[in-house]
Every structure is written in structure tokens, then in C-alpha cells.
């Protein structure tokens, strides 16, 4: 439809959902690392579905641990840096035996890095 899908779990570290999430994890007794692994994998599955259903050819995954877990769900074998986006955040090309993923442009962004217009700048970079 010409729109840019955005999936997020919180609007930043001060989002009240962060505290609620931490409390729910504490109450569950599940180690936070296990919960973060599951959350990253689920976000990766959502991204995988979006890439396939919408034909996305450029994506950003934000959050250090989330990035690694989510990217692993895409079946990427290797990344090649193709352009600088922000300090420490290159735009990369994914290599995969899966044609839906091979050639996908992807940026793996740390949680608190990048300018306020980072996502639109990545979308608009040619």
C-alpha cells in the first residue's frame, strides 16, 4: 500500500511498557535472557513474514540483542557492508540461499544509536 511497516515493543527506555514488561518477567520467574531470546525470535518471525508478504527489500532491526536474534530467524548466512548510515550502523546486503532473503538490505542498529530521523533516512537512502 506504499506505507512503511513499523513493529516496536516500546517507544524508548522511559516507556511505561518497559517497567511493566520487567515486572511481568520478574513475576514469571523466567530468566530475562530466555525471555529476550524468545522476544527477539518472535520479532524476527514477524519481520520474516513482512519481508515475504510485502516484498520488503530494505529493513532495520533496532536493539543489539534483538538484532542478532531477529536476524538469525531470517536465515542469513553472511552480510556485506554496502553503505554507512550512522556511526556503527552500516547498511548491509544479506546473503542467503533463500531468494526472498538473498540481497535484502538490512541495518542492525543498537538501541540508543542514530539520529531521530534514522528510520526515514534509511528508507530514503539510495
List the helices and strands and how they pair.
Elements: H1 16-28, H2 32-54, E1 58-62, H3 64-72, E2 78-86, E3 89-95, E4 105-109, H4 118-124
Parallel strand pairs: 1-4
Antiparallel strand pairs: 2-3, 3-4
Helix pairs in contact: 2-3
Essential attributes:
126 residues, Molybdenum Cofactor Biosythetic Enzyme, Chain A, 4-stranded mixed beta sheet, 4 helices, 4 strands, 41% helix
Biggest sheet architecture? 4 strands, mixed
Shape: globular
Biggest sheet: strands side by side, in what order? 1-4-3-2
* Helix and strand pattern: HHEHEEEH
Measured by DSSP, the beta-strand proportion falls in 15-25%
Q: Provide the helix percentage.
A: 40-55%
Tally of contiguous helical segments:
4
SS content category: alpha+beta
CATH class: Alpha Beta
Q: How far apart, in Å, are the first and last alpha carbons?
A: 20 Å
Q: CATH homologous superfamily - what is it?
A: Four-carbon acid sugar kinase, nucleotide binding domain
User: Do you know the CATH topology?
Assistant: Molybdenum Cofactor Biosythetic Enzyme, Chain A
Query: Residue-averaged pLDDT, rounded?
Result: 90
* Number of spatially distinct domains: 1
Low-pLDDT stretches: none
CATH architectural group: 3-Layer(aba) Sandwich
Total strands: the figure is: 4
**Whole-number radius of gyration?**
15 Å
Amino acid at each position: 500500500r506504499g506505507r512503511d511497516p513499523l513493529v516496536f515493543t516500546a517507544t524508548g527506555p522511559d516507556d511505561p511498557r518497559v517497567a511493566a514488561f520487567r515486572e511481568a518477567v520478574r513475576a514469571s520467574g523466567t530468566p530475562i535472557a530466555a525471555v529476550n531470546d524468545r522476544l527477539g525470535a518472535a520479532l524476527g518471525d514477524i519481520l520474516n513474514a513482512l519481508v515475504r508478504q510485502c516484498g520488503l527489500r530494505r529493513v532495520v532491526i533496532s536493539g543489539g540483542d534483538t538484532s542478532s536474534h531477529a536476524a538469525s530467524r531470517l536465515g542469513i548466512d553472511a552480510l556485506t557492508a554496502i553503505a554507512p548510515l550512522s556511526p556503527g550502523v552500516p547498511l548491509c546486503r544479506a546473503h542467503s540461499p533463500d531468494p526472498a532473503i538473498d540481497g535484502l538490505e538490512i541495518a542492525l542498529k543498537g538501541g540508543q544509536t542514530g539520529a531521530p530521523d534514522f528510520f526515514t533516512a534509511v528508507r530514503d537512502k539510495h
